[in-house]
Amino acid sequence: MAMSHYLSGSAPDGVDVLCDQHRRIRELVKAVSKAPRDARREAFMQLRELLSTHEAAEDLLLRPVTRLTVPGGVVVADARTAEEIAVRQQLAELASLDSQASEFASAFDRFAQHLIDHAEREEAYEFPLVRAHRDGDALVAMGKVLQRTQPPTMPPLPSMPAVVVSAVASPITAAVSKVRDTLSSAGH
Fold this sequence. Notes:
This protein is mostly helical. It contains seven helices and no strands. The chain has helices at about 15-35, 40-70, 75-95, 100-135, 135-150, 160-170, 170-185. α1 (about 15-35) runs antiparallel to α2, α2 (about 40-70) crosses α7 and α5 (about 135-150) crosses α7 (about 170-185). The protein is globular and about 50 Å long. The model is unreliable at about 155-170 (pLDDT under 50).
């Protein structure tokens, strides 16, 4: 896991914020894995919301920086994007399953491993390159935008069938809109 590079009292840069989100994602993965069957859906929905916002922010903020500022960054960004597409597909499949079923637990375990592996590759390969090739002030600016796009801390969502959740709101679409709105208001 990547270490934070900011000191107490100083502004976190974009990589710091993304690493902190990875930490929270790992916590939520554990929460889903350890939750009793009747509480799994709430924990899963919290994870799904954070992942939707996190991945949208990476798509809109991190990947362009990787592609444009890192030597060989197109290859790095394309590899991480391919992993994210696979993670999103698995996430959608999980959302369609009954969280109390045993098939959910086994599918979630496979998903969790892919998700954690992806985060570790970002932390090992992409984040250090971005930090090495991007100006510190630009990274701090990225961190500020990322912090404004994080989902609010909220109580667990009520259990709902996946069909209802999908019909009411698409977390990925909402996350992308939130990131775009934040970027527009920040003048980026």
